[in-house]
Design goal:
10 strands; 228 residues; 8 helices; alpha/beta; binds magnesium ion; 26% strand; Rossmann fold; binds adenosine-5'-diphosphate; four-stranded antiparallel sheet
């Protein structure tokens, strides 16, 4: 038994062209905010995708929200991704033909719980207001700034009330001010909603907002120590 939200033990990943992860151990507690840094090509996205049940490891143990991923079939993995995990990427990936509000509702449409489905519009409006977008709900992505789109993507990731948010370079396409605002928003999720967060980033300013910073190097995770 463990209270960890995420637990990885001895996770390896080898692609035909490259061995990427050589034995990654990681524990993330509920509500904990962790940043992962590391050189380009070191396997950060691969690691995040393994935690998010998008990529299977070559070996090792992966547990998310109390479930051992290797024991789940494709349907159960899809359910876990939809209900327990929210994803945020470098690009917002909003659907251009939908309004901000409609984009936020997309993940709720396939939720198994009809109560969560029917209360989603109410939650979406409250969340959009919380991130300062109450006046933007009916706009489409082309009419919004990059920072606004990325805040909508975060709200979309939250709509099914996940226990874990996985963010891959979430501020990588934003200017400094919008990046700061998004960093504050992500960090506040762990403080006010007890959502666990694992974010891959190149931004020192985002990393330093998290509870701890880990570095992926030579296929393993270690505590990051800033160069002197
Ligand atoms: N699906 C894949 N097939 C083959 N090689 C891959 C695949 N995904 C990633 N890689 C390789 O794994 C390495 C790590 O990639 P990635 O996880 O994207 O690193 P990072 O996010 O740290 O830049 C790279 O060499 C990349 O080319
Ligand atoms: Mg990457």
């Amino acid at each position: 038994m463990t209270a960890s939200l995420v637990r990885l033990e001895g996770v390896t990943k080898r692609f035909t062209s490259a061995d990427v992860l050589f034995g990654v151990d990681l524990e993330v507690a509920a509500g904990e905010a962790t940043a992962i840094v590391g050189p380009s090509g070191s396997g950060k996205s691969t690691l995040l995708n393994i935690i998010g049940a998008l990529v299977a490891p070559s070996s090792g143990h992966v547990e998310v929200a109390g479930k051992t991923l290797a024991s789940l079939d494709a349907n159960a993995l899809a359910k876990l991704r939809n209900e327990s995990i929210g994803f945020v990427f470098q690009s917002h990936h909003l659907l251009p033909q939908l309004t901000a509000l409609e984009n936020v509702l997309v993940p709720s449409l396939v939720h198994d719980d009809s109560t969560l489905r029917s209360t989603a519009p109410e939650r979406a409006c409250a969340l959009l207001a919380e991130v300062g977008l109450e006046d933007r709900m009916q706009q489409r992505p082309a009419e919004l700034s990059g920072g606004e789109c990325q805040r909508i993507a975060v709200v979309r990731a939250l709509i099914n009330e996940p226990s874990l948010i996985l963010a891959d370079e979430p501020t990588g396409s934003l200017d400094r001010a919008a990046g700061e605002q998004l960093g504050d928003l992500l960090r506040s999720l762990s403080d006010t909603r007890s959502v666990g967060l694992v974010t891959v980033t190149h931004s020192d300013r985002l990393a330093e907002r998290m509870h701890r910073v880990l570095e992926l190097r030579d296929g393993r995770l270690a505590t990051f120590t800033a160069p002197a």
